[in-house]
Amino acid sequence: MTAKSNTWAIIYCPKTGTLRPQKRWQRIERCLKEQNVEYDFVQSEKSSGVGRLVKMMVDNGYNTIVIVGGDSALNDAANAIMMVPKEDREKIRLGVIPNGRFNDFAHFWDYQESEIEQTIACLRKGNTRKIDLGCIRYTNKKGERCHRYFLNSLTIGLVASVMNMRRKTRSIIGSKTLSYIPSTLLMIFQRLEYKMHLNINADEVRRKVMTVCIGNASGYGFTPSAVPYNGLLDVSVVYHPQMTQLFEGLYLLYSGKILNHKSVHPYRTREIIVQKAERASIGIDGRLMNTPVGPFRVCVEQEVLHFIVP
């Protein structure tokens, strides 16, 4: 099959709950034409369809896949590309034009929603970097061994629930800033804890934990020092803070200094084994996933995906 090396495959994921989602695509389309980009376009009607569309584009010989979407759409695209045989995967480049509820992985590379022209110009240059992916390996309810990759982070416990609430409230409220309010109230008034048993490097954690964030990148502020190119994962284990410490923690989180909080215990590792996380939700790149049955392992796979960077 002939590779379409000069033609981008663009998968557009409209932001749900917004008025006139086509208006943003029209602006993107105008910028593509102004910069003489050759592309073929397909729209994903459902978030679950991104992986299928990526596979279709790869099977049809496209080497450059550009997702117009957020973290969840990028996650689906990365997982679809990782199913391609390694020798073929080496030819594929993944890029993003941020357009989701959460765009933290795009923000890590300084791609901004409002800077469409600059983003497309960066994508046109075609600078790529081989990046790491985090990977959770687990057993599902059917007893099947499964795995799932993530670009930004995997969260266990309260933060996974908060991210899910932020996603739902932002689709209703329409404001990123205002969507923090009900999420923050959940953290303040529920202040949930989960019995966990974790193995991180030589340390064993057996106690109640509020949340764990495993970051391949910034982890929505909980792993601010993580980078997806050093072969390591950053882990923040958050114990139950006192009420006064909780407000301090919220300030440090939103100012990018959460690691300075007394209740946050940071690690850097290649692997974390979760022996137990009773009744804790698990989120992967901002989306809840089905809870694994029994223990599971989270590791890093080094330099496995070509990502287009500024």
Structure description:
With 310 residues, this protein is an alpha+beta fold. The chain has 9 helices and 16 strands. The strands form 2 sheets. Strands 1, 2, 3, 4, 5, 6, 8, 9, 13 and 16 form a 10-stranded mixed beta sheet that branches. A hairpin with a 5-residue loop joins strand 5 and strand 6. Helix 2 packs across helix 3 and helix 7 packs antiparallel against helix 8. The radius of gyration is 19 Å and the shape is globular.
Radius of gyration: 19 Å
Listing every helix as H and every strand as E from the N terminus to the C terminus, the arrangement reads EHEHEHHEHHEEEHHEEEEHEEEEE
Report the helical percentage: 25-40%
How far the N terminus sits from the C terminus, by CA atoms, comes to 30 Å
Quote the beta fraction.
Answer: 25-35%
Low-confidence stretches: 170-180
Number of strands: 16
Structural class, from secondary structure content? alpha+beta
The biggest beta sheet reads: 10 strands, mixed
Give a nutshell description of this structure:
The chain has nine helices and 16 strands. It is an alpha+beta fold and 310 residues long. The chain is globular, with a radius of gyration of 19 Å.
Map the helices and strands:
Layout: E1 4-12, H1 21-34, E2 39-43, H2 50-59, E3 62-69, H3 71-81, H4 86-89, E4 93-98, H5 104-108, H6 116-125, E5 128-139, E6 145-150, E7 153-157, H7 158-173, H8 176-189, E8 194-200, E9 203-209, E10 211-215, E11 233-238, H9 243-254, E12 264-269, E13 271-277, E14 282-284, E15 287-288, E16 296-308
Parallel strand pairs: 1-2, 1-3, 3-4, 4-16
Antiparallel strand pairs: 5-6, 5-16, 7-10, 7-14, 8-9, 8-13, 10-11, 11-12, 13-16, 14-15
